[in-house]
Amino acid sequence: MDLKFSDEQNILRDMTRSLCTDHSTIAVVRAMENDPHGVPEGLWRQMGETGLLAMMLPESMGGAGFDMLDCAVIYEELGRHLAPGPYFASATLSALVLREAASAGQQQELLPGIGSGATIVTPAWLEPGNGFGPRGVQLRARPTEGGYVLHGTKRHVFHGAAAHKLLVLARTGDDEQAIDLLLVDRDAPGVRLEQQKSMASDTQYRVVFDHVAVPASARIGAPGSGWRSWEAAMYDGIILLAAWAAGGAERALEITVQYAKDREQFGKPIGAFQALAHYMADASAAVDGAKTLAYEAAWARSRGHDVRRLAPMAKLFCCKTFRDVTATGQQIHGGIGFTLDYDIQLYYRRAKQLQMNWWDAHYLEELVATDILDRELPRTIPDPFTV
Amino acid sequence: MDLKFSDEQNILRDMTRSLCTDHSTIAVVRAMENDPHGVPEGLWRQMGETGLLAMMLPESMGGAGFDMLDCAVIYEELGRHLAPGPYFASATLSALVLREAASAGQQQELLPGIGSGATIVTPAWLEPGNGFGPRGVQLRARPTEGGYVLHGTKRHVFHGAAAHKLLVLARTGDDEQAIDLLLVDRDAPGVRLEQQKSMASDTQYRVVFDHVAVPASARIGAPGSGWRSWEAAMYDGIILLAAWAAGGAERALEITVQYAKDREQFGKPIGAFQALAHYMADASAAVDGAKTLAYEAAWARSRGHDVRRLAPMAKLFCCKTFRDVTATGQQIHGGIGFTLDYDIQLYYRRAKQLQMNWWDAHYLEELVATDILDRELPRTIPDPFTV
Amino acid sequence: MDFEFSPAERAFLQEVDDFLQANWDPRVMDVTRENMAQVCDTPERRAFMKKLAERGWLGITWPREYGGQDGEGFYEYLLNEKLSSVGAPQIGKGVGIIGKTLIKVGSEKLKREFLPKILNAEIEFAVGYSEPSAGSDSAAMRLRAERQGDGWVLNGQKVYTTSAHFADWYWVGARTDPDAPKHHGISLFLIRMDDPGLTIQPMYTMGGERTNAVFFDNVFVHDDYRVGELNKGFQYIAEALDIERFTMFTFAPIRGRVELLCAHVKHATRDGEALKNDPRLRQRIAQLATECEVARLLGVRFVDTAINSPKTPTVEASRYKLYSTELSRRVADATMDIVGPGAQLALGTEDAPLKGRAESCYTYTVIDTIGGGSSEVQKNIIATRGLGLPRNF
Amino acid sequence: MDFEFSPAERAFLQEVDDFLQANWDPRVMDVTRENMAQVCDTPERRAFMKKLAERGWLGITWPREYGGQDGEGFYEYLLNEKLSSVGAPQIGKGVGIIGKTLIKVGSEKLKREFLPKILNAEIEFAVGYSEPSAGSDSAAMRLRAERQGDGWVLNGQKVYTTSAHFADWYWVGARTDPDAPKHHGISLFLIRMDDPGLTIQPMYTMGGERTNAVFFDNVFVHDDYRVGELNKGFQYIAEALDIERFTMFTFAPIRGRVELLCAHVKHATRDGEALKNDPRLRQRIAQLATECEVARLLGVRFVDTAINSPKTPTVEASRYKLYSTELSRRVADATMDIVGPGAQLALGTEDAPLKGRAESCYTYTVIDTIGGGSSEVQKNIIATRGLGLPRNF
What we know:
The complex is a heterotetramer, with 2 copies of chain A and 2 copies of chain C. Chain A is α+β, with helices and mostly antiparallel strands. Chain A is built from 11 helices and 9 strands. In chain A, the strands form 3 sheets. A 4-stranded antiparallel β-sheet of chain A has the order 2-3-7-6, with no helix packed on it. By secondary structure, chain C is α+β, with helices and mostly antiparallel strands. Chain C is built from 11 helices and 10 strands. In chain C, the strands form 3 sheets. A 4-stranded mixed β-sheet of chain C has the order 1-4-5-8, with helices on one face. In chain C, strand 9 and strand 10 (273-274) form a beta hairpin. The relative contact order of chain C is 0.10.
């Protein structure tokens, strides 16, 4: 038992933090709000040059051989700085899918570019009125000679306009999991993008697929394997989002604590009022727990342990903590926190939205419950001291 | 709009409070803990003599013509004093069932005695492993010539040993609501009582019915009408339990506030610590809301309004408030509250138990949800200002 | 005890309903502006206020000698609940805080100048209490007013003056005695909003609405435009708030949001399945609806105390404000969770569930538990004045 | 970073497991005593402690010169978690608080007299810090110790001395300088529990277990039985608590209760339907299990800081204590709600779900957020020492 990071991990953290301090300043975060592209030039270039965008790549394609705990360190720092950009959509989630399920040719075509930042791939997954499970994928890919024709609508397609390829989850049959992953050119005829503003002021699109023809070679993996590939990538992805949320929560708490020390009312710093001090003490425990849980999930994944329970727990708890800490942060900031001038609101809006995206609390809770209640295990909650 | 009580109601409150102050002292409450009979002699006699036990009776049988709001006033005071005794089981719930559904003969036989306190009737309803709905009633009443034979087990039969009659919910068929209410002598051959201790240290029994023969004349109402009668009585009963809980919550808060004024630590009364003061302020809002909601439900019932939503809301919220206030009360009392010497623990144990009995939170929430989501109403949450 | 409105009250509500229907205008009545719906910042909204004035509804509780009806405050409560239920501007600031203070302590000159205009909705006020260093601690205001000739020169800064950029007059608290204890050195002034010494700087909020910082650079005010007695300003402010509290935090918007959520769950589907079949959502809806009823009743309790009892319902108001605004934030958060990912889309997104109201509720309701006395301030009031706990924090 | 135990640690755990199995005795190992399971109040339990002593497990972290093994504190943590997971008495009070304080500051006489007996489990201690007026404010203790001849005369009262009615010796803080600031006038004493000047009066608790008030009537203590330097008692108490904290609040009982609840939901039915099919319960179970893992990790963090870093993990300990005990109360409350009406039946009711454990958890866990530093005290520590917020409350 040892919770120390390795020297390499500490260097990675310092490197990411200094990169963010230079290129993901609050000014950059603000500039990217509602930006149609949403790719912060300097940050994106630096992430490419320092190898951060290649974090999921095999070393043969320029990856640095990071394991999940290394990546969690990076994501925690990105979260602290609310770093904008399509790194999760492209360099993490899409890269994971491609790495695990794509053909050698597809990998060769896309992964190096993803790793350098030259290529952006973004998933087109959720649909209006539908949920996170396989039944939510109703966009149809009808088989044609030599390919498919896609018809339907996707929403919450992040950085759609900046993407070169869309990684589309499409229904190819009536069985619940009859789903395929198809790579579609963002410019393909019949693909129509419309930016939609969101609470987090991020860059997301509604994408209509109007009888879009796609060759069979655009399919990733064997027919019908799409959901399995997607789900596997998501289990990794949510661990990193958990780290991102933990980093954001920690920073939001720091901002709030500093404000509570500086701001005086009734003749003393407001942090000297016990009620407010106790809000922050509670938050401090939650933030430390969130960080450690994210580390544990990442560590477990790095070790090859089963993360069917830990990964959803981590996203569930870290996002809830981020959300709760930012809500508390707003309360402690008082009126000034409601103005756009202060930074706490940037965290507040992103925290809730992250909690709702990429598997929300309801979905995650059900994953955890399934692992606890529906699996055959000697103990539903393992005793960590049992050898 | 006017939240004042009538002069009569104020007199009723004063009378009940003074009766409790004399006969439901904390010493009486403590003496009744785990008592096999659980009927506090002085209090019971006084409740009979002052007409409180006749609160549900028609005036022709000695009732004082109280409406539900009058009864809520009484119950709030009983709750403040944690008044022990079988008044809810006998004088309220059983009396309600008998008044609405029993034959003239049955009424004549039982109601006057219930009203004077000479007769005690208690429901035998819940069963091990079963819930609050009609499917929970699995004790069988098999028809015989001229009657039924009962076989099965009941639990949480309050004041079973003191009761003269058990009001048994029994299954007479396979349809979900094929349930009848049968009056069974507590001494009938085959009826076996076993006291079970509970968290609230109240008087409750497990009752085994071992082929107990009951004449057809013991049935209340038409065959198959039992569940309907029971449910109707329960809707009234929970309004009064809500008032009881609100009264208990208010008193628990008063005890706690007083303790926080008296107890000093770190050189000042602990109520001067903002964290504790804020717990009590939150509790104060909840208690005032709970009381008013109980009044509203009782008032609505008195006026003949539909209480399918308000009655469960009242029990749900008042019991939650009672539970939360007592938990806060324990925290503020600190170690001393954990000892049996102090009174707050009497409230703490009863509050949780009341929340779990007579329709628990899950059951009540579902009743409220049904009213909101499954009924055809123009607005799911009515606008009180719409004329 | 009676939880129902009297026939007279129902008749009044009917009258207001008819009026609102007859004057329906989506530019005036817009619940999507959430907490800012009450701001009277457009020509259409000002015109609407004039219509209210024509009905005599601005002077309901004013004495007859000033053109009022000497009526019960309860009708102001009913009117504001109605107005806020449709997102229309409300009465309160001019008629209540300023008008009633002038009636009580204003000079004949000020009464003559302002009261008729208020009654006729010919004037729009901005209120300047908050300052950078005076938030929850409102008596800490520092805006300096120094005596000069027959008037005062004001220097300093206000914040959160939401109406500064469209109001005609500014109702301002300023420190007239820097040496007195902080509650006893403040006086109230009326200043023309277009005074050249005032600089209005927008502060934009998370909800996209505007409020303002206002800078005072040697603003001269004639002593005639000082209100009431010197150095009693804070007392006037507090008294007016106590009187006006129940026109300030209306319940209708919270009810409206709960209704919006319930109606959504009742009718919407996910993956083709009715949302209302999900026991988790049924449970949450039941809880929120119950708490909504409790909030309503705490409001009823408070209004009832104001009207049917001799005491000032300070503690009742705090309980209502505390409980209802904390609920408001819970409702906003739960709405996000229940509605699901589409709820992140911003207000006005046509194909979003609730057309984006989930988003606007989540961002706006942050201010509910802060403005008008934060939850912590309310709890202090309840603890000390309601429960008699020692004031030591 | 490694969340797993090392091979050596696993071997130790295996050794303890084997030991527990070989010495299984339901009179000694009884989780149904909840928080009181650690009390060594019966002959069987004392005999069990002697067996632990024979294994050398009482002196794991003691210096070799006093018969210890100079081992890592981590093994004490592992041992106590194992012991508490089966409801056995734990090491800590004698070995830790008293033994380690004696080793550090005790006279040769006291070391010679007590240390071997502690190591061999021949002595049971009661600890007397709390007094009627000294709860959270433990430095406020008033028990008077007045100099007389070659010793001290003690008068006053202690409360919550859980072991008073069966212990051999009493480890007591008393005020030796009434004029010093409250943290600087306390000294520690060792007193025979059968001293005729002590009157032990039972205080019964909600859980049915016993604790005691102890009255001191002219109890004479020779100065040889005063521990360490005069008037430094409070400092010793605080230092010992900092060292021993992670043997005091074990995680295993909380984990055990969550597991109990989860297993119940997994296997039980209501009205013939599997409980685990209820989405509301599934949701609640997922939340509690997640929070349980967080509590465990806060404990891991705290132990890791204690062992792998040079700093005293005061803030980490407070975070763990705060979060895990608040969770403990939530779990108890949720267990009641999830298990349903049968959960009200008292501990030991054979036909009750969980045999009544729901009831005992609900009544016992009240003390979790109070004893050993209340949640509010922990929050003060985190706020001031962890976040650097000003101490002003």
